[in-house]
């Protein structure tokens, strides 16, 4: 039981780090005009509220790292990041009125979301690898 709680804590903390990386990656894509260049209307403003929400949800999403995946940390980070990306594209953003895949924000919105989630997932997986997990 103690080992499970320890792993749970590591995964939540790594997920928080991944959420921070996701938030900063998405902000940087908007700030530097990458999303505008792709025709996607996503350019978040960097604020405490913006970061806090993504860090907490990143911690919750980090719990997917409890799944037994021991091959490549890079592949683990990318493929497990597709779970929160799918939740965003198929559930959360459509609930906000952006349609399935949030295509009302631009045709390449799914690409931007998958890239941002991959940044966070790979960062979290790398942190877990550095911790020996």
Short account of what is shown:
It is built from 5 helices and no strands.
Cα-atom Rg, whole angstroms? 15 Å
Q: Tell me about the biggest sheet?
A: none
Mean pLDDT, as a whole number? 93
> For the terminal residues, how far apart are their CA atoms?
17 Å
Transmembrane segments: 7-29, 49-67, 74-95, 107-128
Keywords: Membrane, Transmembrane, Transmembrane helix
Layout of strands and helices, then pairs:
Elements lengths: L1 H30 L2 H4 L10 H14 L11 H23 L13 H22 L3
Architecture overview:
The chain crosses the membrane at residues 7-29, 49-67, 74-95, 107-128. Keywords: Membrane, Transmembrane, Transmembrane helix. Helix content is 70%, strand content 0%. The chain contains five helices and no strands. The protein starts with a helix and ends with a helix. The chain has helices at residues 2-31, 34-37, 48-61, 73-95, 109-130. It has one domain (8-130). By secondary structure, the protein is mainly alpha-helical.
Keywords for this structure?
133 residues; mainly alpha; 5 helices
């Amino acid at each position: 039981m103690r080992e499970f709680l320890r792993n749970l804590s590591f995964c939540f903390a790594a997920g928080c780090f991944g959420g921070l990386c996701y938030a900063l990656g998405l902000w940087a894509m908007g700030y530097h005009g990458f999303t505008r260049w792709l025709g996607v209307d996503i350019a978040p403003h960097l604020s405490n509220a913006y970061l806090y929400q993504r860090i907490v949800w990143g911690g919750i999403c980090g719990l997917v790292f409890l799944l037994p995946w021991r091959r490549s940390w890079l592949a683990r980070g990318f493929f497990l990041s597709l779970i929160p990306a799918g939740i965003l594209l198929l559930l959360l953003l459509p609930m906000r009125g952006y349609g399935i895949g949030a295509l009302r924000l631009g045709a390449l919105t799914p690409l931007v979301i998958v890239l941002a989630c991959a940044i966070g997932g790979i960062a979290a997986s790398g942190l877990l690898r550095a911790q020996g997990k």
